[in-house]
Predict the 3D structure of the following.
Amino acid sequence: MTGVRLIVNAAEVVTCAGFSQAAARGKDQGRLGIIPNGAVAISDGKIVAVGSEADLKKSHPVPDDRTIDAGGGVVLPGFVDPHTHLLFGGDRSAEWEQRMLGRDYLDILRAGGGIQTTVAATREASEKELLSHGRLWLRRMLTLGTTTVEIKSGYGLDRDTELRLLKVARQLGAEGRQRIVTTYLGAHVIPEEFRANRSAYLDLVMEIAAEAKEEDLADFFDVFCESEAFNIEETTMLLKGAKALGYGLKIHAGQFSDFGGTAVAAGLGAVSVDHLDYLNDDGLDALAKAGAIGTLLPGVAFHLSLDHYADGRRLIDADIPVALATDFNPGSSFTPSMPMMIALATRHLGMTVAEAIVAATINAAHAVGLGGEVGSLEVGKQADVIICDIPDHKWLGYGFGWNPVREVI
Ligand code: NIG
Ligand code: FE
């Protein structure tokens, strides 16, 4: 067979198969579909066979120079990072130092710093600067095994900068290194110049949303629902408006308090509800009923040195599909590493390593609407495959702070 390449010499092939139609939940959240001594055949960027090495060597014989040696390691689907704020200007290392000395994250925001600091720097950043910043961090993500990335706007908060961020995100997707999904987050916070006139800003958010939709710049619409950001009434209005424009919905809810946004977003059919560090029983019931994915971001509690993490176990036991994401951003989670999220999930979210791997692959793919295309090793899917230099998949949780990924295909 011409054009086929065969990945061989794997201790395990972790397929995460069987959940392309709907995210894995409950007991299935930990089903990795492991093939010991497995192999994967790929052709034209697609997976054409997955099975035991012995079988695939017969069904897909290839010359030596068409084999990829996994070196006795573990083969997995590329990670999907379904929640990042990849594009911004400047950095927040000074505020992070203050935070480490005990200053509160929301206090910094209230005082006009935090997200507002990054908004000011991002408005100054040219398209060229944002592109090279984006390429740098996407390359770091790729090295760590992430092959699909969701990118939010939200550090512009004016028409020109928000649209610039979304265009840059689309451009990065067109460059083809990773699959990129874009989310419009004009509803991140109220920018300084609109503090005295919130309703005018809400109008502007929806105007930009309409324009971004018309120009096909954004796939999803997101709101930060929290004190210091958008209240329940505003969140409801924004999400309803976005739904009417044809957006898929996402929300930042339950990050610092149980504010009620979870039930609203779930009720409106949000694809995923993100953060969920704080979640009351109503929110849990609403999520379970709606079938929304709970996307957990343990990098935030780690980065801000908080002792409260989301309860992943409670979500999984309530039959809610769980995804993991880095939330990569300069303020609350400055890491591009999905392996680190798996390590944190096993230590702080009450999840097994198998549940965390499913959360970082197929469930994360569903959280960005791509469950049918990426996130698992199955025939017909995009050939986003990673090889990890580890003897078995448990090491993805067991190890931390070093990169287990040796090759990304
Ligand atoms: O997901 N919560 C709001 N947005 C980001 C933080 C953004 C920032 O601090 O710059 C988050 O944590
Ligand atoms: Fe976020």
About this structure: The chain is about 35% helix and 20% strand.
